[in-house]
Amino acid sequence: MGIFVPSKTKKAPVAVKSDVDDAIRKKTESNTRTIRLLLLIITATLVVLGTMMMLLGISVYSHYKSFFLFLGSSRMTMTPSILTAFIGSVLMIVSIFGFVGSWKLSTFMVNLCAFTLMLLFFLQIVVVILAFSTVGDQIWSHIDVPVEIYRDPQIQRKIDMLQHNVSI
């Protein structure tokens, strides 16, 4: 039997760079670029969607603002068109924040944008549920009062204008 004598000089492990390592690194970089591009496209789409929501809310409000006064908006401070414009502006601001975060490769900004968009989504679901559960009673309470006083010429003109413009 031989006796094993360890050598006094230790050799450092040699890192061999292989073609497999290069392929894995290139594949990872490609995946990262693809994810970044998808984030940029999604956030840019959300910016456009937020802008469209904001413009839609403003245009509906400007077109039907006389009807909001007719329906008694003194009791109704937040109309659906104002709410749509507000949510659209918040969506646009948050999406711009996410676009800048994905452009600058900031994980914090992208995560904060995703969290805020999730909260905004749940807020929209709650608003829709509340709107559909209470809107019927509010509409009838606003319409019953003007119909009872239809003999007033000013109210009569407003009701006739409402019927003419909404039916077209």
Could you describe the 3D structure shown?
Keywords: Membrane, Transmembrane, Transmembrane helix. One of its GO terms (cellular component) is membrane. It is found in: Membrane. This is Tetraspanin. This protein is an all-alpha fold and 168 residues long. It starts with 18 loop residues before the first helix and ends with a helix. Helix 1 (19-70) packs antiparallel against helix 2 (80-103). The protein has one domain (22-167). The protein is 79% helix and 0% strand. The chain has helices at 19-70, 80-103, 107-148, 153-167.
What distance lies between the first and last C-alpha atoms, to the nearest angstrom?
A: 106 Å
Strand content: under 5%
The counted number of beta strands is 0
Biggest β-sheet: count, sense, barrel?
none
Helix content: over 70%
Gyration radius, in Å = 31 Å
Averaged pLDDT: 78
Which structural category do the helix and sheet elements fall into? mainly alpha
How many individual helices? 4
Backbone shape = rod-shaped
Low-pLDDT stretches are: none
Order of helices and strands: HHHH
Whole-number total of structural domains: 1
Membrane topology: Multi-pass membrane protein
GO cellular component, one term: membrane
InterPro entries: Tetraspanin/Peripherin
Protein name: Tetraspanin
Produce a short descriptive summary.
The protein has 168 residues and is mainly alpha-helical. The protein has helices at 19-70, 80-103, 107-148, 153-167. The longest helix has 52 residues, at 19-70.
